[in-house]
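Worked problem 6 (solution included).
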Amino acid sequence: MTYDAIFLITSAMKTIDALSMYSKEERFKQLVETVESIKKYASPNHLIYVIDGSIEDASEELDKIEKLGVHVFKAYDYPNVKEYAQKGLKIFIENLCLLYFVDWFKQNPQKSKRIYKISGRYTLTENFTHGFEHENA
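Solution. The predicted structure is:
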């Protein structure tokens, strides 16, 4: 099967509170809103992966996200994720988690016309298009 889109949502459910502008509850709410916006505005033929770079196990929160029909990639046990999270190196964590996900994805490939990366606090709007109309241009 070929999907119209695969969405990669990067997030960290658990962070060092002093380094975050958002509480854990706000982060969870924002992630749910991101997922719901994809379901509302994207083609129904899609997959959603949440790539979580938490400082510690966030299974309780991520299990709730999985119940929304989302696949979760938990990266906190991968090398250097905790170390970088403890130092507050957010962009390094996000990129490292994406690299770990890509390695995993190579072993578990899915076919898709497009792959989108979105952060867990952003949402799609009614202006979102898949861009398929430009494929034959």
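Discussion: Residues 57 and 76 are 7 Å apart (CA to CA).
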